[in-house]
Design brief:
single chain; 247 residues; Arc Repressor Mutant, subunit A; 3-stranded antiparallel β-sheet; two-stranded antiparallel ribbon; 58% helix
């Protein structure tokens, strides 16, 4: 696959290939299976049928037989190769990202979803960092880490970056970090002060009372986004990190 990331359309195709590795099914049966396996996910029928048409046009599935005017599909050798390709290329990425997400979930939920703090992930490659940022708004995580410090914990940007990397295994882009800081300063959520007004070598930042108030609603939004992302990564690993399709 040329893309570094995975879309919802890819996810639907992976699910269809996964199920068809085991048996032949109709479109309706496959939709029912998805609703049972992922009840918390909104599975729009037209998207499932779009993925079926795409796989059929690419000759990765074919009509096995027709019964009472209902088409039943089977996976082709080309479809099996595609599934193996997904498995080979995406499982390592999603395992790395799942470690990062689990650490984020622990942070944003205060440990309420797990009794033990997850092990910090190993440092991610630049490619995996790009992959991660394509699934979760990294600026939101930077903003969360800033506002969570509260009014009594001044910080400098270098320490903020070090904290993020040590906790989550990835280093934020300085451009993104300064974008968030400038936005917060302009809106009164953050104030900055140079250690020396003349030399201007170190700038310390502190969250304001307005920033603390905003954090209450913002943290809920981040929590929901992180949990949603954890569900998605778990879904893909469920479909790929199994013995099904092993050569």
């Amino acid at each position: 696959m040329k893309e570094k990331s995975i879309t919802q359309h890819d996810f639907h195709k992976i699910f269809l290939l996964y199920e068809l590795m085991e048996n032949d099914y109709s479109g309706g049966q496959l939709l029912d299976k998805m609703n049972v396996k992922f009840p918390y996910k909104v599975n729009v029928p037209q998207y499932i049928y779009k993925a079926l048409r795409s796989l059929k046009n690419e000759h990765e599935i074919a009509v096995a037989y027709v019964e009472n005017k209902v088409h039943y599909f089977t996976i082709t050798s080309k479809g099996k190769d595609r599934y193996y390709q997904y498995k080979k290329e995406l499982v390592p990425k999603f395992k790395n990202m799942k470690q990062v997400i689990d650490c984020l979930v622990y942070t944003v939920t205060g440990g309420s979803y797990t009794s033990q703090r997850p092990e910090p992930p190993k440092a991610l490659s630049k490619e995996d960092q790009r992959f991660f940022s394509s699934h979760l708004n990294v600026k939101d995580i930077i903003a969360y880490e800033i506002l969570a410090r509260g009014t009594n914990t001044p910080f400098i940007t270098a320490h903020l970056l070090e904290d993020i990397e040590s906790k989550y295994g990835w280093s934020s882009s300085k451009t993104w970090m300064y974008d968030v800081i400038h936005h917060f300063e302009e809106n009164g959520y953050l104030v900055g002060k140079w250690d020396d007004p003349v030399l201007r070598t170190l700038r310390y930042y502190r969250v304001t009372d307005e920033g603390v108030s905003m954090f209450q609603s913002f943290s809920h939004q981040v929590r929901e986004n992180v949990l949603h992302c954890q569900h998605f990564f778990s879904q893909v690993l469920d479909l790929l990190d199994s013995s099904k399709g092993d050569k």
